[in-house]
Task: inverse folding
């Protein structure tokens, strides 16, 4: 007897006829392992080391990253005919470090997402095949992996969210590159259609135009690869108001232009003398052509947003 160790019940079947027991023992010179119950004359379960270790060969993957998935192929045999377990590991630095990408029965091949294989010019795949006691390892030659674009996911707002124009809307998302590193800051960009709303994994959205708005989270990794996640929200219209409306108190009789400074409480369209101007929360300066004259200049302003209308009149004296 090399060692004795206690075990813990990890799980049990619904019928109560089987248990999964977990324990740790040194395995370097172990020929057999048995699970015993105090007072029982015979072990509950026993397994012995087979006489021969499994054999395995692994094929170098081809064109890794050119498709969404990668198929890893290998050949494994066991002279004792036992069931084999295959552990697939990946290295992006020619074998200096490894990460496990798959564990399961040895069937000779398995298909995995390309993003499991981080972009590298010195990639390798390692297969560990075990019969429960004996383990054999095979490593591929170096190959190039293209990896995969980052993964982006919008956490907020949720699909179908409804807000009123001018209300606070929090944008929150998360993105990871194919090495599992989280992307943040300028590598995350939020858009409303083609309009850039801001950057980062969390921000308060600027005021949105009424209607169905397609919010996009665009993630860019260190290699310039991009991916997008989208969500549609509904923005209900509210009556637009003039947040800023400034005009000169007087004009020269010879003036051919008048300058206005305008801002609205929500994105809207301003119509003056048949001309249209988009306005929003930021103050915008407008230059309108006018005819010279002595009589006061009278302007009618019409502010429209989502079918809601506000009107105003300006009278500017001339001298």
Result:
């Amino acid at each position: 007897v090399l060692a004795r160790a206690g075990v813990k019940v990890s799980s049990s079947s619904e019928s109560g006829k089987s248990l999964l027991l977990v324990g740790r023992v040194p395995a370097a010179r172990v020929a057999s392992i048995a699970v015993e119950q105090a007072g029982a004359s015979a072990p509950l379960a026993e397994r012995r080391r087979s006489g021969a270790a499994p054999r395995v060969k692994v094929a170098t993957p081809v064109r890794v990253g050119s498709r969404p998935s990668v198929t890893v192929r290998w050949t494994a045999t066991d002279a004792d005919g036992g069931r084999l377990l295959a552990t697939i590991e990946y290295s992006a630095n020619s074998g200096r470090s490894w990460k496990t990408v798959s564990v399961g029965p040895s069937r000779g091949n398995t298909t995995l997402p390309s993003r499991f294989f981080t972009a590298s010019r010195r990639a390798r795949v390692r297969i560990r095949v075990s019969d429960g006691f004996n383990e054999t390892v095979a490593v591929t030659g170096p190959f190039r992996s293209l990896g995969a674009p980052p993964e982006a996911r919008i956490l907020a707002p949720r699909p179908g969210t409804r807000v009123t124009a001018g209300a606070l809307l929090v944008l929150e998302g998360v993105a990871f590159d194919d090495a599992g590193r989280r992307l943040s800051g300028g590598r995350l960009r939020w858009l409303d259609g083609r309009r850039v709303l801001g950057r980062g994994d969390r921000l308060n959205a600027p005021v949105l135009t009424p209607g169905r708005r397609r919010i996009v989270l665009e993630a860019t990794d260190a290699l310039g690869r991009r991916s997008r996640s989208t969500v549609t929200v509904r923005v209900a219209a509210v009556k637009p108001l003039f947040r800023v409306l400034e005009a000169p108190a007087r004009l020269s009789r010879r003036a051919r232009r008048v300058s206005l400074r305008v801002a609205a409480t929500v994105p809207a369209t301003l119509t003056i003398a048949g001309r249209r101007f988009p306005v929003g929360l930021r103050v915008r300066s407008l230059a309108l052509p006018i005819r010279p004259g002595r009589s006061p200049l009278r302007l009618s302003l019409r502010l429209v947003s989502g079918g809601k209308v506000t009107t105003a009149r300006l009278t500017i004296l001339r001298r």
